[in-house]
Amino acid sequence: MSVGMEKLLALAAAIGFLLDLLIGDPENWWHPVRGIGWLIKYLEKKLRKIFPATPKGELAAGGILAATVLFAVWRVSEGVLRIASRIHPIALLAFMSVMSWQILAAKSLKTESMKVYYALREGDLKKARSAVSMIVGRDTDGLSEEGVIKAAVETVAENTSDGVIAPLFYLLVFGPAGAFVYKAINTMDSMVGYKNSRYLYFGRTAARLDDWANWLPSRLTALLLIGTAWLLPGFDGAGAWRIWRRDRRCHKSPNSAQGEAACAGALGIRLAGDAFYFGILQKKPTIGDDGRPVEPEDIPKANRLMYGAALLALAAGLIISVAGRNVP
């Protein structure tokens, strides 16, 4: 990447971050990830008709799905940027900035999780359950107030990596096209990466790709959350470090507990534990110490941690980018 392009990327990343901070993802606006989701559904339907419903057949179909989606997303993203570059450098900056904005989800994560908080503040547990059901995969109808709060905090903590730090990492390292490839991997995992009878084999490639793509960003997220807990008042930086080191592997996923452990330690609460999915109880280890009862205020606190980590990540990325260009 040329020095001029690196400067353009750094500026586009900063503009995209600001756009996400101010605008987020308005519900009535079309988003490219919806197009990626449509492509995944379309290919799944076609591939299931072509390949036999056997473990080998579904593994092959899932592999072709993943390769096709990633290639298509890369080619379209690169094509858009190539066309913009032929128009004018300002057009290229504009497209890079918009693409940077579209791969970040900090504002949306805060908006959706705070709907849970406001419902709890109103004393409407039913409304809070409904709000949290929009951002978690577990069953929410029977959740207590404590369960609703924990679910919202866990979602913010886990998605600080998937929705903010990881996209920002791939954006700064590989540019907007690389960041969109990451979003495609993440979207595939959320749609087909389940360990159930339908997707155990078909979604295995997508799930593995997601694990690999998030391995480093999830650990960077934990360190950024810990750093934020040290810097901001009202959080326990030492506790974040201690709980992360102890509980970062308390999850079936190699990545999910990283941010949750740091967040639990920073807040001084216990997260995770058993949960129902599609009516079936899933036994899961707890994360963090039961130092105090969870409370609704833990949801905005988790969002402050998320934004602090995001700002640290952006600042570090831009500094490293500038420093790298100045090295002879």
Characterize this entry briefly.
This protein is mostly helical and 328 residues long. Helices cover 73% and strands 3% of the residues. The chain has one domain.
Can you characterise this structure?
This protein is mainly alpha-helical. The protein has one domain. 73% of the residues lie in helices and 3% in strands. It has eleven helices and four strands; from the N terminus they run ααααααααααββββα. It has helices spanning 3-22, 32-50, 55-87, 89-103, 106-121, 125-133, 145-192, 204-231, 237-247, 256-267, 298-326; strands at 271-272, 275-277, 280-282, 286-287. The strands form two sheets. It has a two-stranded antiparallel ribbon with strand order 1-4. A two-stranded antiparallel ribbon has the order 2-3. A hairpin with a 2-residue loop joins β2 (275-277) and β3. α8 (204-231) runs antiparallel to α9 (237-247). The longest helix is centred in the middle third of the chain and has 48 residues, at 145-192. It is globular, with a radius of gyration of 20 Å. The mean pLDDT is 90.
